[in-house]
Design brief:
Number of helices: 3
Oligomer: single chain
Order of helices and strands: EEEEEEEEEEHEEEEEHHEEEE
Helix content: 10-25%
Shape: globular
Number of strands: 19
């Protein structure tokens, strides 16, 4: 390797261990009020508590957060409880940058191709921001802020008092209802999900360090710069970097009708092994200004840059690496060779039959 350049796309500090949620069918009518202590939610299990975005090697978040989900023919229902006594929010304009406040965020990729995914943010005032990412920022993706998720509804419930640091605050909870008519626009089938289908998704909680002063909350600032200290990012599925936009590491939401527990498809394991080669190609480009089709060189980069624990756990079959001066294409097949998985230089994945 030459002198170290800036690495544009860091390799995550975590391996492919995404959480899985088996989403049950809703059995009761829904009333939108932000509360999760009602009969509608009683049969829906909670997710695991959120972790730091960089993974389990970081300290546990100082406040607990978890979510639950249900579905029916029309909607995906998401509920979350954000524990803690620091309940505040000031943003009031729709589609403003909500994470300047503490917030709750949803990320949804309906076809697991890491592109054309929805981001939704909300604060404790139920001020919202919805946008579409054409692809991840690392892949020169552009946010479409003009997107409006048609029919989406949300509500907030506060056990305490908003913007009052003297109150006996316990938590704030949210409900978000997302119609499948909108989500289907980015799904391969262009239809609502059926039992056995899955989405990739993640949740994030942004939490700022604050002090309590005269009944208010004030962000803690760095005395040398005068700027607020960096916010904490607590998530359901850690990405191993301080960047939520690594969709390949988001969790799996399986749509179920009973007690079935589908497994992560083999094609997703192939995608992950190809994704590691994608990271290596991007690092090679940072050093050399182009890509390589030498698999041994890519393996050496992974040995040098990937976490020691992230050894290859799935053997790639019929691996192909094709490059041009400005692009590359990776491909491999499933064990029975009936499906081919492709991953491109811009991050997109694709599965083809045969």
């Amino acid at each position: 390797m030459n002198a170290k350049p800036e690495i544009r796309i860091p390799i995550p500090k975590v391996g492919f261990t995404p959480p899985v949620y088996y989403c049950k069918r809703a059995t009761m009518p829904h009333t939108l009020d932000g509360r999760l202590d009602k009969d509608f939610w009683k049969d829906a299990p909670f997710t695991e508590y959120f972790q730091d975005i960089e993974g389990p090697t970081l300290p546990e978040p100082r406040f607990r957060t978890r979510t639950k989900m249900l579905w029916d023919d029309e909607n995906l229902y998401i509920g979350a409880i954000l524990e803690g006594d620091e309940i505040w929010g000031h943003q009031t304009e729709h589609d403003c940058v909500i994470f300047h406040d503490n917030d709750f965020e949803i990320f949804l990729d309906t076809n697991s191709d890491t592109q054309e995914y929805i981001e939704y943010e909300m604060n404790a005032k139920n001020t919202t921001w919805d946008l579409l990412l054409t692809k991840a920022y690392r892949d020169q993706g552009s946010p479409i802020n003009g997107l409006e998720v048609k029919g989406l509804k949300s509500a907030v419930h506060i056990d305490g008092t908003l913007n009052d640091s003297t109150a006996q605050n316990k938590y704030w909870s949210v409900e978000v209802v997302i119609p499948f008519t909108t989500l289907a626009e980015t799904a391969d089938s262009r239809k609502a999900p059926v039992s056995g289908d899955f989405y990739r998704l993640n949740f994030s909680r942004v939490q700022w360090d604050v002090t309590k002063e005269n009944g208010t909350y004030q962000k803690v600032c760095d005395p040398t710069t005068g700027k607020p200290n960096p916010e904490s990012n607590w998530v359901w599925a850690p990405t191993g970097v301080i960047n939520i936009h690594y969709p390949e590491l988001w969790g799996f939401l399986f749509f179920c009708t009973g007690d079935e527990t589908p497994s992560i498809p083999e094609t997703e394991l192939v995608k992950w092994e190809l994704r590691k080669l994608y990271y290596a190609e991007q690092i090679y480009f940072d050093y050399h200004g182009g890509y390589t089709d030498d698999v041994n060189t890519l393996a050496k980069i992974l040995q040098d840059f990937a976490p020691a624990s992230e050894n290859q756990s799935y053997h790639l079959r019929r691996l192909k690496v094709q490059v041009t001066d400005h692009f590359f294409e990776l491909s491999a097949t499933t064990k029975d060779h009936t499906r081919t998985v492709l991953l491109f230089a811009d991050g997109k994945t694709q599965v083809k039959e045969g």
